[in-house]
């Protein structure tokens, strides 16, 4: 399932190339703005930064929640796809480390969308049922590959790693939150490598 390509305004018709480019720019801009400024950011500002008019935004996303739903789906899909790509291009432990660093950005976006995600949850949106398990499965694959390669300790469990990573979500907000979170990820990765069978990792 491709979580990133559902039309925000319904209808399901294939978008023209220019309309798709506009839509993609809106999603990318909204992701960045929500992560840095929160979900209450002006939709007019998002449209302006994406280089389109507010009418174009509303044609693709008739409400703030519709935009947020698509942004969230895209973020989940990106984390899923990153696991595959990183494992293809890096050693298993390096892939795991890089993926966990990307997880910080994912959490930043999710924190920025918190209130609207809560509204979607309370409205019984299928969003959470459809995306549930995607992140844990991606992390499980990464951890198991690193364990099998002897690059991290044998008793590493992906559920424990996800629990540790998820604690970043509840950390106090502040200008150094992202840097502090990245340091914590590096410390977590050092702990996973400690006692690994392979002495060169």
Summed up:
Residues 42-61 bind DNA. The chain is mainly α and 201 residues long. It has helices at residues 17-37, 43-50, 54-60, 64-89, 92-112, 114-122, 127-131, 134-148, 158-166, 177-193.
Under the CATH scheme, which architecture would be assigned? Orthogonal Bundle
**How is the CATH topology named?**
Tetracycline Repressor, domain 2
Instruction: Write the CATH homologous superfamily.
Output: Tetracycline Repressor, domain 2
Helix content: 55-70%
The total count of strands amounts to 0
Amino- and carboxy-terminal Cα gap: 35 Å
CATH class, named Mainly Alpha
- The succession of helices and strands, N to C, reads HHHHHHHHHH
Shape: elongated
* Rg estimate, integer Å: 18 Å
What amount of the residues lies in strands? under 5%
Give a short account of the largest sheet: none
Keywords: DNA-binding, Transcription, Transcription regulation
Pfam families: TetR_C_43, TetR_N
GO molecular function, one term: transcription cis-regulatory region binding
Protein name: TetR family transcriptional regulator
């Amino acid at each position: 399932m491709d979580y990133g390509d559902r039309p925000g305004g319904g209808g399901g018709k294939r978008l023209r190339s220019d309309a798709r480019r506009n839509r993609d720019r809106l999603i990318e801009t909204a992701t960045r703005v929500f992560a840095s400024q929160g979900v209450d950011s002006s939709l007019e500002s998002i449209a302006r930064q994406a280089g389109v008019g507010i009418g174009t935004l509303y044609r693709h996303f008739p409400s703030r929640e519709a935009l947020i739903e698509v942004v969230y789906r895209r973020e989940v899909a990106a984390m899923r796809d990153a696991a595959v790509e990183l494992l293809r291009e890096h050693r298993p432990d390096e892939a795991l480390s890089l993926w966990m660093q990307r997880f910080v950005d994912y959490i930043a976006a999710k924190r920025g969308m918190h209130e609207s995600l809560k509204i979607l949850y309370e409205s019984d949106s299928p969003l959470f049922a459809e995306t549930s398990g995607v992140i844990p499965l991606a992390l499980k694959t990464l951890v198991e590959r690193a364990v099998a390669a002897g690059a991290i300790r044998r008793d590493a469990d992906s559920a424990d790693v996800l629990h540790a990573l998820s604690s970043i979500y509840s950390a106090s907000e502040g200008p150094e939150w992202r840097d502090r979170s990245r340091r914590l990820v590096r410390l977590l990765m050092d702990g996973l490598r400690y006692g690994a069978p392979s002495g060169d990792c």
